[in-house]
Amino acid sequence: MSLLPESLASWIVIAVLLFWFVGAYNRLVRLRATVLQAYGALDAALGKQLDFVQASIAASPPEAVLNESLSSIAPLQAATTQLSTLLGATRLHPLDAGGMAALATALQVWIGAWRRQHPDDVTVFDADGTLSRPVPLMPGSSGASGSSIAAASVAEPIAWPEPSAAAEIARNQFNQAVASYNAAIAQFPAMLVAWAVRLRAAAPLL
User: Fold this and answer.
1) What is the pTM (predicted TM-score) of this model?
2) Exposure of 134 in the CB half-sphere (CA atoms within 13 A)
3) Is 86 within a domain?
4) Residues spanned by the domain of 67
5) What residues contact residue 42 under an 8 Å CB cut-off, 6+ apart?
6) How many domains does the chain have?
7) In a structure prediction context, what are the per-residue pLDDT tens digits for the chain, which is 206 residues long?
8) Quick check: is 202 in a domain?
């Protein structure tokens, strides 16, 4: 009978640890779901931007493609096709950091191609949807520091082709969700739960 208190104490410790593990796991899963939900909104916003550019390319007069404008229209079409392909691939694995990095690179190439084709169509919105001033010269011009996950909340605004704040708002919300999720799985002891269930850090869209 003298072993009963020790046995009871052991079961209490096990129950507490199990309760903590389940609670920590559920929190990480909720944060992960928030990232996925935010990416869904971002994916839709990027799709609208692609549709806008595709419509612009389709509306270009045929003779423009055959003369001097070829140097700007063809790269824009190629960049649009590449971005559309990578967006489809990222849609399958939005938490894959490598895939998101590839999407970010394709996005910057695409934005640059659009700016060369339409240098006068520049409207930049801040993350809260308000107009940004001054307009940056080129997307990603702030330097390589924007490549870190920690910079997700201060990513440089993008001059999107379609003059709408929706894409920038969606990008900011996704990046904020990624930052919260990554911070959670990096904290001790929650990082042990993340390791046990193989939760990996995501990447923002910079």
Assistant:
1) 0.77
2) 3
3) yes
4) 11-196
5) 167, 170, 171, 173, 174, 205
6) 1
7) 455 567 877 777 777 777 777 878 888 999 999 999 999 999 999 999 999 999 988 887 665 555 544 556 888 999 999 999 999 999 999 999 999 999 999 999 999 999 888 887 777 888 777 776 554 444 444 443 343 444 444 578 888 999 889 999 999 999 999 999 999 999 888 888 889 888 899 999 98
8) no
